[in-house]
Design brief:
The protein is α+β, with helices and mostly antiparallel strands and about 850 residues long. About 40% of the residues lie in helices and about 15% in strands. It has 28 helices and 30 strands. The strands form eight sheets. Strands 8, 9, 10, 11, 12, 13 and 14 form a seven-stranded mixed beta sheet that branches. Strands 2-1-22-23 form a four-stranded parallel beta sheet, with helices on one face. α22 runs antiparallel to α23. It binds one RNA strand of 89 nucleotides through α1, α8, β9, α11 and β13.
RNA sequence: GCCGAAGUGGCGGAAUUGGUAGACGCGCUGGACUCAAAAUCCAGUGGGGCUUACACCUCGUGCCGGUUCGAGUCCGGCCUUCGGUACCA
């Protein structure tokens, strides 16, 4: 080589490059100590080829149905939020499998829905095509995650074999009068161009899906009569193990109120006004009645003089949005209509008003106003100078406003002197006896509006015939297939209208020309019974395998987001109860246990494609592998809490995996050297062995408790503590090494499934861990502590800690306590007043 | 407004029935290895004080008060954040 300066430079330059490359290769090699990609592929292939996760559903002994809410196959694919939902739940399922349960964990696709259709409007790509593509991608991602899903049970709601049974359910409900059509004021989302159920409108009056402000429209729509089950939906909550807050939300949503209906005659008219009240005891204090402005009686009862005022008032209400109108912040408004009602209990003539605070959709749409006992009535009465009569004696010092508490009835004729509960009973008896009213329970829950003016959903199986009217499709003609060719222009009418071939049909009754219903069903119908179909998703001729459904439901563990509290989780309970009533299932509730994973946000906002803040798990799994990522998600914090996304700590779980793998590599094949006993006598072990033997057994116990209760973060912390302790495994006999590593590998099984299989295999096991599940219980003898640390306090302040033999009695402890200089110096020149001793915990001396 | 949950180091978070606050991890600091860096390993790591040092003292779980020998934990009154709900008679 020529030694010109140039070439020397060039040479050193190359050396440098070479060096860097080598180093970066080394770095990589270091990172690759645990070849996750190879190992994960290997075990995923093994599980799949050996059908390790195919559940034998005929074996119902120890059955455990573990379910996560199925996935909406959106274009954003799997994001961190999905992983956070699925991976820990899968770890729980694996834990149960290792413990010997026959676990069924299926996965499927909630494949109908708006986003795919909106995507079609934007891009022209058909919802079917985009959905199928998304499912294909998501299935691959799910497999890479390493879930133990039984892929033979996979289902998608957009297949005719599935949605046929949505239609079938519709027809069964229809037969029983539980699916019906009515004209009603309904929620309309101007952005999604469809109606929405009450449950799908957010508190601020926006659309649950897209956030647009929802408006009210009067339309004729299909409803499911969920209110028929209101009482059972309420009482059933006491029988299921769900988070209290979720049950409370459902209770509030159902909103049961107990009271009475009271009939008021109208002066000079044959009409009666029936009001609903929870406070019939206050009826003597009625000073006016209020009707909802839209109430049909208003037209009949408004007197000539008041006609214009009433019309003007109604117009002024119309210009307000529903949110403005129903906002509690807004001052109540109203006008009198000129008529008077007669109070049945005392014959008093009271004016009838209309006001925005009376809602047509609740109760009878008519309210008896008792300003003395109701805050809203008080506010209204003060504004319009209406009289106030107190009927319950307020406590002394009570200031000028409505009194809603308990007390003695006053100004109330034959009720005087009774307390609220007694008065309620007595007045209801009186009303019923005199035919002026009756006991009545009302619910806030409304019927479930299931029509959607959209394409990508289940067609409603109804035909409209000019002669026969509304005719249900015959069951044998199901499914009413969703045609492929339609125009995806969202114009507030159903896209199906654009397909003549679909729309025009012969009437099943008379054979004449008729039209199909062009609306589709709310996709929450699909998700109301999918857990039953999973058990035999290909079954034809019946909605699901009844025999298996009776054996396998209710679902033992259901995991999904809390945002479904008053939607999916309510609808599914309703449909389950209906299916029970028509003899298809034998349980009252679909989900026996429920857990909500917390929400993973990104910069404070929920991850969504539209917000552009979706964190893609692929970047982490390609760098660290699935196990490290799963571990990290579980280690982040309490599962039910969620939190804001940060990848800051992922290095910690990566190190844990690397170090664990190193340890097993180091003691590769240990089981071929020796077979460890079930347990060891502690006294036969050397000091290091003793410590490790105790630690592994303590960990078995702790881990078991933690993971059983979905406390993955502390379960993993226990494994990390164990691994730290295993630094000294070298100093143990081969038997103890084998004993410990066998158990450690099993503990890794749920939380790091691929790593665990590899480690299990490394130490010399032939069968895969998941193929032949193994679990070890802790040796109770190893859990016994022979010495404990007790805290020694003087006046409640920690002065020292002492190591003493476990279960030492007070007198023995006292000696060592008093002998300690750190303690005795605080006792000098003081008198001991009291001594508190808690065995194995604390010795506290109180001095003066 | 009402209902529910939660506030603990620089950060994520631990803490059985009231009994040694800060497990585990991240980050940071120092050291070892290296020509050097990365990786790895070892040690330290709540604030303040004091000491040559070992040690010791003191304050600390959103704020104020209470119960108790002892309070992150129980009680009363607030503050903040996040969910749910919105005139439901």
């Amino acid at each position: 080589m020529n030694s010109s300066p140039f070439s020397v430079n060039l040479f050193s330059f190359f050396i440098r490059i070479d060096y860097c490359t080598k180093n970066s290769f080394n770095t990589k090699a270091k990172n690759m100590r645990y070849p996750f990609s190879e190992i994960e592929n290997k075990w995923q292939r093994y599980w799949e080829e050996k059908k390790v996760f195919k559940t034998d559903l005929d074996k119902t002994h120890n059955k455990l149905y573990c379910l996560v809410m199925f996935i909406y196959p959106s274009g954003a694919k799997l994001h961190c939020g999905h992983w956070y939902n699925y991976a820990p739940t899968d770890s729980w399922a694996r834990y149960k499998k290792l413990k010997g349960f026959n676990v069924f964990e299926p996965m499927g696709y909630d494949a109908f829905g708006l986003p795919a259709e909106n995507y079609a409007i934007k891009t022209g790509i058909h919802p079917y095509d985009s959905t199928m593509q998304n499912i294909k991608d998501i299935r691959q991602q799910l497999k890479k995650m390493g879930g133990m899903y039984d892929w033979d049970s996979e289902l998608m709601t957009c297949s005719p074999e599935y949605y046929k049974w949505n239609q079938w359910i519709f027809l069964q409900l229809y037969k029983k009068g539980l699916a019906y059509r009515k004209n009603a004021p309904v929620n309309w989302c101007p952005n999604d161009q469809t109606v929405l159920a009450n449950e799908q409108v957010q508190p601020d009056g926006t659309c649950e899906r897209c956030g647009a402000v929802v408006i009210q429209k009067n339309l004729t729509q299909w409803f499911f009569k969920i209110t028929e089950y209101a009482e059972e939906l309420l009482s059933g909550l006491d029988k299921i193990n769900w988070p209290e807050k979720t049950k409370l939300m459902q209770r509030n949503w159902i909103g049961k109120s107990i009271g009475a209906e009271i009939n008021f005659d109208v002066d000079g008219s044959d009409e009666k006004i029936t009001v609903f009240t929870t406070r019939p005891d206050t009826v003597f204090g009625v000073t006016y009645l209020v009707l909802a402005p839209e109430h049909p009686l208003v037209d009949k009862l408004t007197t000539y003089v008041f006609k214009k005022d009433v019309e003007d008032y109604r117009d002024s209400i119309k210009s307000l949005t529903e949110i403005e109108r129903t906002s509690t912040l807004k001052e109540k408004t109203g006008v009198p209509i000129g008529s008077f009602a007669i109070n049945p209990v005392n014959g008093k003539r009271v004016p009838i008003w209309i006001a925005d605070y009376a809602l047509l959709t609740y109760g009878t749409g008519c309210v008896m106003a008792v300003p003395g006992q109701d805050e809203r009535d008080w506010e209204f009465a003060s504004k319009y100078n209406l009289p106030v009569i107190r009927t319950v004696q307020p406590p002394e010092g009570f200031e000028d406003k409505a009194y809603t508490g308990d007390g003695i009835a006053i100004n109330s004729g034959f009720l005087n002197g009774l307390n609220v509960e007694e008065a309620k009973e007595k007045i209801i008896e009186w009303l019923e006896k005199n035919n002026y009213g009756k006991r009545k329970i009302n619910y806030r829950l409304r019927d479930w509006l299931i029509s959607r003016q959209r394409y990508w959903g289940t067609p409603i199986p109804i035909i409209y015939c000019p002669v026969c009217g509304e005719v249900p499709v015959d069951e044998k003609d199901l499914p009413v297939e969703l045609p492929y060719n339609v125009k995806f222009k969202s114009e507030g009418t159903s896209p199906l209208l654009s397909n003549e071939e679909f729309m025009n049909v012969k009437c099943p009754k008379c054979g004449g020309a008729a039209k199909r219903e062009a609306d589709t069903m709310d996709t929450f119908v699909d998700s109301s019974w999918y857990y039953l179909r999973y058990l035999d998703p290909k079954i034809s001729g019946q909605i699901f395998n009844k025999d298996l459904a009776e054996k396998w439901t209710p679902v033992d563990m259901y995991v999904g987001g809390a945002e479904h509290a008053t939607m999916h989780l309510l609808y599914a309970r309703f449909i389950h109860k209906f299916l029970r009533d028509i003899g298809l299932v034998n349980s009252d509730e679909p989900f026996a246990n429920l857990i909500h994973q917390g929400t993973i946000t990104n910069n404070g906002a929920k991850m969504s494609k539209s917000k552009g803040n979706v964190v893609n798990p692929d970047e982490f799994t390609s760098q660290f592998g699935s196990d490290v990522f799963r571990l990290y998600l579980m280690f982040m914090g309490p599962y039910e809490l969620g939190g804001d996304w940060s990848d800051k700590g992922i290095a910690g779980t990566d190190r844990f995996v690397q170090r664990s793998y190193d340890l097993f590599e180091k003691f590769k094949g240990i089981l071929s050297k020796c077979l460890p006993n079930e347990n060891y006598k502690i006294t036969s072990l050397n000091e290091e062995e003793k410590l490790i033997y105790k630690k592994i057994n303590q960990t078995l116990k702790k881990y078991d408790q933690e993971i059983n209760n979905f406390r993955f973060n502390t379960a993993i912390a226990a494994l990390m503590e164990l691994l730290n302790e295993l630094k000294n495994l070298d100093k143990c006999s081969d038997e103890i090494k084998a004993y410990t590593l066998k158990r450690f590998a099993v503990l890794l099984g749920p939380v790091a499934p691929h790593l665990a299989e590899e480690c299990w295999n490394l130490i010399g096991n032939k069968k895969s861990l998941m193929e032949e599940p193994v679990w070890f219980d802790a040796d109770p003898k190893a859990l016994i502590k022979d010495s404990v640390n007790i805290a020694v306090q003087v006046n409640g302040k920690l002065r020292t800690t002492l190591v003493i033999p476990a279960d030492s009695e007070e007198t023995a402890v006292k000696q060592s306590v008093l002998a300690d200089e750190k303690v005795s110096r605080y006792l000098k020149d003081r008198t001991v007043v009291k001594e508190i001793f808690v065995k194995n915990k604390i010795y506290n001396i109180v001095v003066k």
